[in-house]
From TrEMBL, chain A:
Domain TGS: 60-126
GO cellular component, one term: ribosome
Organism encoding this protein: Bactrocera dorsalis (Oriental fruit fly)
SUPFAM superfamilies per the UniProt record, alphabetical: ThrRS/AlaRS common domain
UniProt-listed InterPro entries: Beta-grasp_dom_sf, Pro-tRNA_synthetase, TGS, Thr/Ala-tRNA-synth_IIc_edit
The organism's place on the tree of life at top rank: Eukaryota
Protein known as: 39S ribosomal protein L39, mitochondrial
The keyword Hydrolase is assigned to this record: no
Keywords from the UniProt entry: Ribonucleoprotein, Ribosomal protein
Signal peptide positions on this chain: none
Keyword Ribosomal protein (UniProt): yes
Automatic annotation (TrEMBL), chain B:
The protein, known as: Large ribosomal subunit protein bL17m
InterPro entries: Ribosomal_bL17, Ribosomal_bL17_sf
Segments of this protein annotated with the region Disordered: 180-203
Keyword Ribonucleoprotein: yes
Gene Ontology MF term list: structural constituent of ribosome
GO (cellular component) term, any one: mitochondrial large ribosomal subunit
Compositional bias per record (Basic and acidic residues), positions renumbered to this chain: 188-203
Similarity comment: family membership: Belongs to the bacterial ribosomal protein bL17 family.
Key words of the record: Ribonucleoprotein, Ribosomal protein
The keyword Metal-binding appears for this protein: no
GO biological process, one term: translation
Gene (name only): RM17
Automatic annotation (TrEMBL), chain C:
Protein name as catalogued: Large ribosomal subunit protein bL32m
Family stated for the protein in its record: Belongs to the bacterial ribosomal protein bL32 family.
Source organism of the structure: Bactrocera dorsalis (Oriental fruit fly)
Major localization class: mitochondrion
UniProt keyword annotations, A-Z: Mitochondrion, Ribonucleoprotein, Ribosomal protein, Transit peptide
Gene encoding the protein: RM32
Length: 336, 203, 201
């Protein structure tokens, strides 16, 4: 009995110390309410989504030729309304659950929840297809995106976390990356903190959150990210590359800028570890830029702990992707 | 002799002989055994057979035992030969056991046979069906093979990790060679000066 | 005998009686309207004054009837069975998955019927060929199955004297039956545990 009490006390102390040091939330102090800035961002997102749906007007029919198992079929869908997910719903429950990405006309990767615009052929991809190159890339990008959401959920307000951006997905580098700015110039993450971040990722995956895509114009994007200094700085150059449009993704309440495509849901993330956080540079006299890295596998992929340990070990090394404070080499690499 | 070698002294069956199953037969226990002998014979002959689950499950143990003993004792062992003579009803298969199956399976670290649950028609009969096969048979595989796709995400990650590791090792090796040669150069440095001086004189 | 005479006399009297009472009203006899029914019910009101078991039963037989009420629990158990023991209504199967190769549904842990059928047919053809070729000879070599247009692979020395039984199938290799999967590796198993960097660059 006394032993239990002592153990409990130790755990409590550790947790308190841990909270004080790093400002990372643990289970008990998990954020329930969203900040007003994020609530407003979500509201704008939903409103724009509604507006775009209403702007479709007269519903036009398109023919979608589905190629794949169990047989090729032609589906009559609605232009600008029906998504590949809706096509999968016509096929079977298994197709809906398993398909993570669609392939339009045989070469264009297309989000599962992005409306189709014209008659096309459609293939539904999962992680075990013969050539999983495109879907792997989309998965890696989604991992970075989810890491951003996990970081946002995990840090307390005292940490003054600001999401910067993430570089394009490169699986061969061995880790997915998110660059953040923290108001601490010498944060040395402990093992427990990294584990808490990994748990936040797993919790996101367990929630099975739908990942939505929306193209908005630059002005609206600026309004949405009014509170985020770094995102606001990036927006003009991104919009300039893309005829004044910016592609946004939303998962739960987390909204981020990304070129896409991403997988259909957060459910597709299976095993995941946030491996390391490296300090890159000081920002001003208080803040510093950190690069958070992790490694993950799609749900349903099993790997023994020795092999996975090697992957984790490798993910701890600093990822050599372009750093956010480096000058632009290629304009396209800024945001994945 | 290390531990791995010691374990080889003992006959260790991967698939044990199963407890007696109720394979009912009008001829009594002899008929039941004849049924099992027929099954083992057919397995060695055809290398892949489809049959009811109970019969396959029990016959599998005897087939494993037979192959295991054949590998352990070879064809000069009387008891093993008698065992083969008992289980194989067609005598040309005794040759196959010692000359084909033993070389094929002697380095096999896992079971010599595989058993799958076979599909049955719905609702069909109550009894479950199964497919029993010897490893290394020439027939098409019953399971899809995912191991060959190098592009699956974990394979890509592991490949890159291996390359990274090798690169590191090579760099270490190069460093080591460089440091060794540097030490050698220092050692021979003093002797070398004298030799060089001689060479210059000769030239 | 005398009983028969009594019965026929009795029925005659009955008919006569009925004819006297109803016949003159010009209605058809009721038996024609209700063929096969015991006439007891119709006659009963008229003969209510004297009780007779025979009148009650007529030509029918009195079957056994329930003596006691069956409780609702028993009735429900009879109707639906017991959950977990003998549940009679249909239950949804959750152990079904669709095959990644062909898209057909199959039970979890059981081979996919569609893919298995394909493999089974090919296996059967191969087994027939092998058995034909074999005859009654003692089997001393591995069997190698060659499809149309395939040649026996040379062994490590480059010579062609591998001791195998060659069985030829008179048809091209099916596309789904990859030859690559059946190949054995020639690489020797490692005898050291040290990993050396090799094949670099």
């Amino acid at each position: 009995m006394a032993g239990n009490k002592m153990l409990f006390q130790t755990v409590l102390n550790t947790l308190q110390r841990f909270n004080r040091l790093s400002n990372i939330r643990t289970y008990s102090t998990s954020k329930e309410t969203v900040s007003p800035a994020i609530a407003k961002r979500n509201e704008l997102f939903s409103e724009e989504q509604r507006r775009q749906k209403a702007a479709v007007g007269r519903v036009e029919k398109i023919e979608v030729r589905y190629l794949g198992l169990p047989e090729d079929v032609t589906l009559a869908m609605n232009a600008h309304i029906s998504t590949p997910y809706n096509c999968a719903q016509h096929l079977s429950d298994g197709h809906c659950k398993r398909s993570a990405l669609a392939l339009k006309d045989g070469n264009v990767p297309w989000d599962m929840h992005r409306p189709l615009t014209e008659s096309c052929t459609l293939q539904l991809l999962n992680f075990t297809v013969a050539d999983p190159h495109l879907i792997n890339k989309a998965f890696w990008r989604t991992c970075s995106f989810m890491l951003g959401a996990a970081l946002e959920n995990s840090f307390t307000d005292e940490a003054h976390l600001q999401l910067h951006s993430f570089p394009g997905p490169n699986i061969k580098s061995g880790s997915f990356v998110y660059d953040i700015v923290l108001q601490a110039q010498s944060w040395q993450p402990t093992k427990a903190e990294m584990r808490a971040l990994s748990a936040a990722m797993i919790r996101l995956a367990a929630k099975d959150l739908k990942i939505e895509r929306l193209d908005v114009n630059n002005e609206l994007a600026l309004e949405m990210f009014a509170d985020s200094r770094y995102k606001r700085e990036q927006l003009p150059s991104i919009a300039q590359q893309n005829q004044g449009r910016v592609t946004l993704y939303r998962m739960g309440t987390h909204i981020d800028i990304s070129r896409g495509p991403m997988v259909a849901s957060s459910r597709f993330l299976g095993k995941c570890t946030v491996a390391a956080a490296h300090k890159i540079a000081n920002e001003g006299d208080k803040d510093a830029l950190y690069r958070v890295q992790g490694v993950g596998l799609p749900a349903g992929f099993t790997l023994d702990h020795v092999s996975y340990g090697t992957l984790e070990e490798r993910a701890r090394k600093l990822n050599s992707a372009r750093l956010p404070n480096e000058p632009f080499e290629e304009q396209h690499q800024q945001i994945a | 002799m290390n531990q791995a070698d010691v374990s080889k002294l003992m006959s260790q069956l991967r698939i044990a002989v199963k407890p007696h199953r109720n394979l009912r037969n009008p001829d009594g226990p002899e008929g039941r055994l004849l049924k099992l002998r027929k099954t083992v014979t057919a397995l060695v002959k055809h290398e892949r057979i489809e049959l009811y689950y109970n019969r396959a499950d029990e016959a599998r143990g005897y087939a494993e035992l037979l192959i295991s003993n054949a590998i352990r004792y070879g064809d000069r062992h009387k008891a093993t030969m008698e065992l083969a003579d008992y289980w194989l009803l067609e005598k040309q298969l005794v040759h196959k056991l010692f000359k084909v199956l033993v070389p094929r399976l002697e380095n096999c670290n896992f079971s010599y046979t595989r058993m799958y649950k076979a599909p049955r028609d719905y609702p069909g009969m109550y009894y479950r069906k199964s497919v029993l096969e010897l490893r290394g048979n020439p027939y098409p595989s019953l399971l899809p093979d995912y191991t060959n796709n190098r592009n699956l995400i974990h394979n890509v990650l592991l490949d890159e990790a291996r390359k990274d590791y090798r690169r590191e090792k090579l760099a270490e090796l190069a460093d080591k060679i460089a440091s060794e040669s540097a030490v050698n150069a220092e050692k021979v440095g003093s002797e070398g000066d004298a030799k060089e001086a001689e060479n210059v004189e000769k030239a | 005998m005398s009983r028969n005479i009594y019965q026929s006399l009795n029925s005659f009297l009955n008919r006569l009686e009925r004819f006297i009472f109803f016949g003159h009203r010009g209605q058809p006899p009721l038996e024609l309207a209700l063929v096969g029914m015991p006439s007891v019910g119709l006659n009963a009101p008229n003969k209510s004054d004297r009780f007779s078991l025979k009148n009650l039963l007529g030509d029918g037989i009195l079957w056994a009837v329930p003596k006691h009420r069956r409780t609702i629990e028993k009735r429900l158990n009879r109707k639906f069975g017991l959950p977990g023991y003998n549940w009679k209504p249909l239950v949804a199967k959750t152990n079904l998955r669709s095959c990644n190769q062909c898209g057909h549904d199959h039970e979890l842990g059981v081979l996919c019927p569609h893919c298995y059928k394909k493999v089974e047919q090919e296996t059967r053809l191969m087994q027939e060929k092998i058995e034909q070729k074999l005859g009654l000879e003692p089997i001393e070599h591995e069997v190698v199955v060659l499809y149309q247009g395939e040649q026996l692979e040379k062994n490590e020395n480059g010579s062609n004297d591998r001791k195998v039984r060659v069985v030829e199938m008179e048809k091209p290799r099916p596309v789904w039956f990859s030859k690559n999967l059946m190949q054995k590796t020639t690489a020797q198993p490692a005898d050291t545990k040290e990993v050396k960097p090799s094949n670099l660059g």
